[in-house]
């Protein structure tokens, strides 16, 4: 799942936990200052926690019973599984939408966020315009702006906007005291923070609910400040009932309005919560713990392999890659890591070129307990991969389909993209004339089942790799694996017959790996096929008729 949507899912989950905790335990309490901290924490923690490098935890599953451990060697004559583009000859009108669904949704989401931000910026610009258009004076470091015809008094930062002719003198004093409380307690900062959060995370309904709860709590705080400093609280409440709001409100300011009036009057007349009840806020600690646990459960399992970029451990299996640039220090670290997993790495032959890159290597992994061992000799040395577990291990120049992408990225980077069985750009087919579907149709139309293989009932999977040069020309077509020479030659012929791709604007050369599954169907409907590749790894399926 794309990082943006993972982050949105995580931040929405944190916000939901905070908001539900607030309305369950704290909404009816009169600890308004504590509630302000709690609601602000909801915005801050939900935005920050998903960005923290929390360690992932997972639940282990019992491994299935297995028979005698076997050695696995995957190389030119093995059964590799390489993550490549899946292509099918059938196309539908909705395919372009599904193929680009993530990009489309991302653009839509960002567009809505930008629109909301622009709307809020326009409100800020309008406030600035109002501040310049009215008569202003400063008192106690607070700026007061008189605006005739203003629909409702409000404050923003250290400025109070009001219409002196719209209210009686007593009401006006109550209004100014209320807005002064907003200013002195910096409530505009709360509104700006919550508004920005809602613009960026607009899809989360709990964000808007939390913003509304924060806004109401700020009104409680301002009311509390006025009540403490007035001898006529009843008159203040009466002023609330008399003052109405017309026109549109701005989301980033604090209004003295009849919004929330019922709740505000109820809270002003409510008995103060006992101080001992503040213990409830300790419930935030398990809430934060639960939140961190949920986030770590959605994090990918972090592998700590002593910081060695050539090693990765996933689900009890150790994966590794050796490139010509692998240093002696890295090799020693790999030895130590393998030793911790009860395996021994021996490198009896290691020669380097003048530039320090490996020229020749003999690489052998042994497990004294099981007696399993795999070895690899290469000269001149090219990038190769290995894996080692309690039941199996393997080594060769082609990575398995389950190989960690981080190691494949290292291999591509340190081998100038020349890695067998790897596609360096998964979107390469979009550069084909007519797009991905046309690429699949062209191969399906061109590839044939060699007669000699039909007669001998030979089926299996062919893996072929080629380069797409910057100008779109196909070059260096190489058969990496084929159950019969004729099958590999046929796929190679079909690839070489493809028209050129569109030129790459970045001027890069891409490596492409294609898997073709050959199957034979008997007269009784039974199929002869090789099970090395699952359907999701097959680019093209060629079905012929068995001769007998």
UniProtKB/TrEMBL annotation:
Keywords: Membrane, Transmembrane, Transmembrane helix
Domain TonB C-terminal: 434-529
Ranges annotated as spanning the membrane: 6-25, 37-57, 101-122, 278-297
Membrane protein topology class: Single-pass membrane protein
Location(s) in or outside the cell: Membrane
A single cellular component GO annotation: membrane
UniProt main location, coarse: membrane
Pfam families the record matches: Peptidase_M56, TonB_C
Highest taxon of the lineage: Bacteria
Any single GO BP term: transmembrane transport
NCBIfam families from the UniProt entry: tonB_Cterm
Protein's recorded name: TonB family C-terminal domain-containing protein
């Amino acid at each position: 799942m794309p990082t943006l949507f993972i982050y949105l899912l995580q931040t929405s989950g944190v916000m939901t936990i905070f908001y539900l905790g607030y309305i369950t335990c704290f909404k009816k309490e009169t600890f308004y200052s504590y509630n302000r901290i709690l609601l602000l924490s909801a915005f801050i923690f939900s935005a920050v926690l998903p960005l923290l490098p929390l360690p992932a935890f997972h639940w282990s599953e019992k491994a299935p019973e297995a028979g005698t451990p076997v050695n696995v060697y995957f190389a030119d004559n093995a059964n590799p599984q390489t993550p490549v583009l899946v292509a099918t000859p059938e196309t539908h009108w909705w395919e372009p939408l599904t193929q680009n669904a993530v990009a489309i949704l991302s653009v839509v989401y960002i567009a809505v966020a930008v629109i909301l931000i622009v709307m809020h910026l326009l409100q800020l610009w309008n406030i600035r315009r109002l501040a310049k258009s009215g008569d202003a004076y400063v008192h106690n470091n607070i700026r007061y702006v008189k605006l005739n015809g203003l629909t409702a008094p409000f404050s923003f930062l250290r400025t109070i906007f009001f219409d002196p002719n719209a209210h009686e003198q007593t009401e006006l004093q109550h209004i100014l005291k209320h807005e002064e409380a907003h200013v002195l307690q910096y409530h505009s900062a709360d509104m700006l923070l919550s508004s920005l959060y809602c613009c960026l995370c607009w899809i989360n309904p709990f964000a808007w609910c939390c913003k509304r709860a924060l806004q109401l709590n700020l009104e409680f705080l301002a009311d509390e400040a006025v009540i403490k400093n007035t001898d006529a609280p009843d008159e203040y409440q009466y002023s609330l009932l008399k003052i109405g709001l017309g026109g549109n409100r701005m989301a980033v300011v604090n209004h003295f309005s009849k919004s929330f009036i019922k709740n505000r009057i109820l809270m002003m007349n409510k008995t103060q919560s006992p101080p001992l009840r503040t213990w409830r806020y300790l419930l935030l600690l398990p809430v934060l713990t639960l939140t961190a646990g949920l986030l770590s459960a959605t994090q990918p399992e972090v592998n700590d392999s002593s910081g060695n970029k050539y090693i990765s451990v996933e689900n009890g299996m150790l994966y590794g890659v050796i490139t010509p640039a692998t240093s002696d220090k890295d090799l020693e670290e790999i030895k130590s890591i393998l030793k911790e997993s009860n395996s021994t790495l021996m490198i009896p032959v290691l020669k380097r070129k003048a530039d320090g890159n490996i020229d020749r290597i003999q690489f052998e992994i042994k497990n004294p307990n099981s007696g399993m061992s795999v070895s690899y000799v290469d000269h001149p040395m090219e990038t190769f991969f290995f894996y080692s577990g309690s039941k199996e291990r393997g080594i060769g120049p082609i990575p398995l389909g389950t190989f960690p992408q981080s190691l494949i990225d290292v291999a591509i980077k340190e081998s100038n993209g020349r890695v067998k069985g790897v596609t360096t750009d998964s979107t390469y087919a979009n550069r084909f004339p007519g797009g991905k579907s046309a690429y699949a149709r062209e191969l399906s139309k061109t590839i044939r089942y060699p007669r000699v293989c039909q007669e001998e009932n030979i089926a299996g999977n062919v893996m072929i790799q080629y380069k797409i040069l910057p100008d779109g020309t196909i070059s260096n077509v190489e058969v990496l694996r084929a159950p019969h020479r004729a099958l590999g030659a046929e796929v190679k012929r079909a690839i070489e017959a493809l028209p050129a791709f569109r030129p790459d604007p970045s001027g890069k050369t891409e490596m492409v790996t294609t898997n073709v599954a050959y199957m034979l169907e008997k007269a009784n409907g039974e199929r002869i096929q090789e099970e090395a590749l699952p359907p999701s790894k097959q680019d093209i399926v060629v079905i012929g008729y068995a001769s007998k």
